[in-house]
Amino acid sequence: MTAIFANSTLVNLVKTDTFNGIVSNIETYQPQLNVIEKYWASWYLFMDNDKLATGLLFFLLHEFMYFFRCLPWFIIDQIPYFRQWKIQPTKIPSMKEQWYCFKSVLLSHFLVEAIPIWTFHPMCERLGITIQVPFPTIKRMALEIALFFVLEDMWHYWAHRLFHYGIFYKYIHKQHHRYAAPFGLAAEYAHPAETMSLGFGTVGMPILYVMYTGNLHLFTLCVWITLRLFQAIDSHSGYDFPWSLNKFLPFWAGAEHHDLHHHYFIGNYASSFRWWDYCLDTESGPESKVSREEKMRRRAEKNVKKNI
Ligand SMILES: [Zn+2]
Ligand SMILES: [Zn+2]
């Protein structure tokens, strides 16, 4: 029996054969639930198998959100008007490149990511990640997601930096750097080993969080994964608009930050924020190179003066 309600007798009360029937029964017996909670509960009741319901939900959510978010970038690439905001305006991805990338990403979704997605629910149960309605408060979800963004960014910085060393780059990360001028679809174009290890930041950090707190809702995870997908796709979009988030939040990385990484193959290792690259002096691009050299020169002069 599904664990969607804390009170299991409710399950027998609202369950019928059709999805719409379940939705209307929930409206009758649980009118206090909001519309998303009603459909969420109806999905689990209709599927009548929590493992399958979670697996399918995550897989479909990932596929839909990924390609849905890539589509506007694909359209923008076809419209010359938008070139004024393209970071590398002479490098527009060809149809052939985009088609190849699309096929590779889709294949890797089915082959690599399908397995962890199907084994996700049993792990959630063991860890205490709940599927029950009602959902946690928006404030709680927002705080948890903000924390996941910070933790994922930290993991991404160090793992990505490691991927730029010798054999890790040669045999694994080089695949992702096929495109020196990235585009939305290229966000998940990577070697399976990279998808797994960088993906740990997205899935592993919430797991560590729930191991510590014993409390996390699966819906919070769905929202977090969707936002993280949007961040990854947008940072590969190749466009920096006057209304991009990094113009309002200076510590937000955005496309400008990650485009430089693809362009110069070095520096700007973090995913969402700029603070790691700023503090550890690994910012990418010619301007950062000049300021880094200037800093080194000043340090050397200081040392010479000290020794005189
Ligand atoms: Zn890289
Ligand atoms: Zn990239």
UniProtKB/TrEMBL annotation:
One of its GO terms (cellular component) is membrane. GO terms for biological process: lipid biosynthetic process. One of its GO terms (molecular function) is oxidoreductase activity. The chain crosses the membrane at residues 52-76, 207-227. It is found in: Membrane. Keywords: Membrane, Transmembrane, Transmembrane helix. Residues 146-282 form the Fatty acid hydroxylase domain. PANTHER family: STEROL DESATURASE (PTHR11863). This is Fatty acid hydroxylase domain-containing protein. It comes from Tetrapisispora phaffii (strain ATCC 24235 / CBS 4417 / NBRC 1672 / NRRL Y-8282 / UCD 70-5). The lineage of its organism: Eukaryota, Fungi, Dikarya, Ascomycota, Saccharomycotina.
